[in-house]
């Protein structure tokens, strides 16, 4: 993930909590959908670059959906996330992991048949530069697929946890959960594509109702599976377990007792790089 903040490192127990709690809740369905869209646009074995692969959930789905002989280079800025992804996924045919800054990709021009980025662009300090880099390494005619989150109103569980966090601090509350939701304007993302040299952009809103068996796991995921936990601990005035308990109760008050289905919605963008 590419966020310009000292408290935005995905370190320590964060990768494991991200994968354990948030993976099945919000990343598996998105990764499966994205992998299917990418694979359907490939004519055969291909070279794929994944930017901001996190714990490798989308990497695994891409590996499963694409044809044998496909090579996937999965990158992330955070080495801890890459290490977890490599251990979690084990040996996947054709998959390699490499640390890389999305704003300065260490690859040659026109090197990949497809470039994908699941929930990463929102973290780029310079989003236009990130799109330009992904375009640069993409072959003419190759496809660029990215996903972003839709608004809190379509992902209400995240908004609830965010509101509980902010209500617990008199000043300077942790604000990390705002970051994944800072790129909400479809036209703005289309403009990023156009600025990187793409023409027509296909946009799809993808909804999912995630079955939840424990509200505490949801709260724990959004509070400890990302740098929010670092922000809370840095301030030192509120215990993270206190916030988890409060967020769990608010989720149950809002959605009812488990089992329950929580709604989530993302936006997927796809386009092909123009040929000369």
Please render the helix and strand layout as text.
Layout: H1 14-40, E1 47-50, H2 57-65, E2 71-76, H3 79-89, E3 95-99, E4 112-118, H4 127-136, E5 138-149, H5 156-167, H6 186-195, E6 202-212, H7 215-224, H8 228-235, H9 240-255, E7 260-272
Parallel strand pairs: 1-2, 1-4, 2-3, 4-5
Antiparallel strand pairs: 5-7, 6-7
Keywords: Methyltransferase, Transferase
Pfam families: Methyltransf_11
Organism: Parasedimentitalea huanghaiensis
As laid out across the biggest beta sheet, the strand order is: 3-2-1-4-5-7-6
Terminal CA distance: 32 Å
- List low-confidence stretches: 1-7
| SS elements, strand count | 7
What is the C-alpha radius of gyration, as a whole number of Å? Answer: 18 Å
- The run of helices and strands is HEHEHEEHEHHEHHHE
CATH fold-level topology of the domain at 14-155 and 175-209 and 264-272: Rossmann fold
What structural class do the secondary elements suggest?
alpha/beta
CATH level 4 superfamily of the domain at 14-155 and 175-209 and 264-272: Vaccinia Virus protein VP39
Pfam families: Methyltransf_11 (PF08241)
Keywords: Methyltransferase, Transferase
Protein name: Methyltransferase domain-containing protein
Domain Methyltransferase type: 49-145
């Amino acid at each position: 993930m590419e966020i310009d903040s000292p408290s935005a490192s995905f370190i320590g127990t964060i990768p494991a909590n991200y994968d354990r709690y948030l993976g099945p809740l919000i990343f598996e369905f998105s990764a499966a959908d994205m992998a299917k869209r990418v694979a359907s646009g490939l004519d055969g074995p291909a070279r794929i670059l994944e930017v901001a692969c996190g714990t490798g959930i989308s990497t695994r789905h891409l590996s499963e959906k694409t044809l044998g002989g496909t090579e996937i280079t999965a990158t992330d800025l955070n080495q801890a996330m890459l290490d977890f992804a490599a251990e979690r996924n084990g040996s996947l045919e054709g998959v390699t992991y490499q640390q890389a800054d999305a704003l300065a990709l260490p690859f040659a021009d026109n090197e990949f048949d497809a470039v994908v980025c699941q929930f990463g662009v929102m973290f780029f300090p310079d989003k236009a530069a990130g799109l330009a880099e992904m375009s640069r390494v993409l072959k003419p005619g190759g496809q660029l697929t990215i996903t972003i989150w839709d608004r809190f109103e379509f992902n209400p569980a995240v908004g609830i946890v965010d509101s509980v966090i902010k209500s617990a601090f008199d000043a300077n509350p942790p604000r990390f959960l705002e970051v994944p939701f800072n790129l909400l304007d479809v036209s703005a993302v289309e403009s990023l594509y156009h600025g990187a040299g793409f023409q027509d952009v296909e946009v799809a809103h993808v909804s999912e109702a995630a079955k939840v068996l424990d509200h505490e796991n949801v709260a724990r995921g959004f509070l400890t599976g990302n740098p929010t936990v670092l922000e809370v601990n840095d301030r030192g005035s509120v215990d993270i377990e206190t916030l988890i308990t409060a967020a769990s109760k608010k989720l149950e008050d809002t959605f009812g007792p488990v089992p329950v289905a929580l709604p989530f919605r993302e936006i997927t963008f796809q386009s092909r790089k123009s040929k000369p």
